[in-house]
Design brief:
- The protein is of the alpha/beta class and 488 residues long.
- It has three domains: 15-109, Rossmann fold (3-Layer(aba) Sandwich); 114-333, 3-Layer(aba) Sandwich (UDP-N-acetylmuramoyl-L-alanine:D-glutamate ligase); 343-482, Protein-Tyrosine Phosphatase, Chain A.
- Helices cover 36% and strands 20% of the residues.
- β2, α3 (51-60) and β3 form a beta-alpha-beta unit.
- It starts with a helix and ends in a 6-residue tail after the last helix.
Length: 488
Amino acid sequence: MSKLEDLTSWNSAWSELRVVVYGLGVSGFSAADTLHELGAKVFVIADKADEKLVEVLDVLGVESLIGAQEKSQLEALRDFNPELLIVSPGIRPDNYLLSTATSLGVQVWTDIDLAWRLRDKHGMPSNWICITGTNGKTTVTQLVEAMLISAGIRAVACGNIGTPILDVVRDPAAFEVLVIELSSFQLHYLNEIAPIVSTVLNIADDHLDWHGSLEAYTEAKAKIYHNSSICCVYNAGDSVTEKLVSKSRGTENAQAVGFAVNTPRPNEIGWVEDILVDRAFIDDPAEAQELATFADLKKIPVISPHLMANIAAASAIARAVGIQPLEIQNALQGFVLDAHRIELVLEQDGIRWIDDSKATNPHAAAAALASFDSVIWIVGGLLKGVDIAPLIERYAARIKFAIIIGVDRAPVAEAFRTKAANIPFVEITDSEDAVMTAVIDIAKAKAVSGDVVLLAPAAASMDQFIDYADRGNAFTKAIEQGVRNTNG
């Protein structure tokens, strides 16, 4: 066996390994720091990096090359002669350094691959629950974490959310279960892991500019099901996810369980009006176990169909590992959605102002549009190669007026002209600093009692904002300055 195949434990001989860490964001730094702790010979290459992280690497004695030209990076890679490259997940598969490393026979891992091998640092290896999907994965990950903690299990959410997974692996808390959100980028590079429970929540067009096609994007998502030992959870309303389960490898002994927003069939968890019921983890499939009700969602002002699906999915995962109804109820009663996720910013004069800036693709925006009947919709940004026309056509009856922002305004405007010609819209061409002020001024003039002013852009934000949170914060600030109590 090769040296890499022998590295299956924190206690393996990592000191003999030469590793390039490519990219120095939070996951790249965590990987470099972990490998340094293990005694490996580490060299960091990055196009850009936070100066403070570079300073820490210098203190640790980890060599780095930051901001160099392509030729210098390639020369450094060859001179270092690594056996392994840890890639930051945002780096595209056709990247020149990755291509060169692969041609030289260097194996490529992510921090997830490394964490899988190191999960026994504190003795008994942690169990992994893995969650992905085009939309909702952060909320489901947080819900599952809350449900497990409610049951007294030392669980933590990590991966594409919150704390880098390698920091969690090294944490003295010695977590029993890692609830891991995985993006399509991470899954593209992922090698073999074996979660106890896994799920693909949904599949829709997203990141097609990165993956190249919907087929490649779906293939990346499908990897999460492989080798799941206890349960594969799929979306009963999304046949693609069920097909991915049927094609998964190493899941012969895993139960396949669906989740739904309506009445569940046998082997599903779903909703009967406002009651969440389990027909999967009970002795008699003809019966149903009540798990929770809308009354348990005390801290969530908008209960959308999307949220109901997320709760059903999280409950299916929790039930698969033995969590009881009372523990699910306790978790839901204290649960608060992240900021910028169908968040009620203001309700005044019968108008609701909703921040769903985290809706960075059409599938996510659909969840918000489906929740309201008369919408003044703020849409646009970086479309990432996705066609927004089907979304506009599907929800045209709910859209009263559209305010188009962002660099990719032209295809959005064209979609309205061809798919919903009766819906008036305006394009905002103001500078980045003024865009939300202009948006709020227009929305305020158009909205009447019963309307919802909805920021659900169906696009990424980096053309005009730092990230979706910055976009949502700008929206909220503009509302505070231009709407709240200004009408009396």
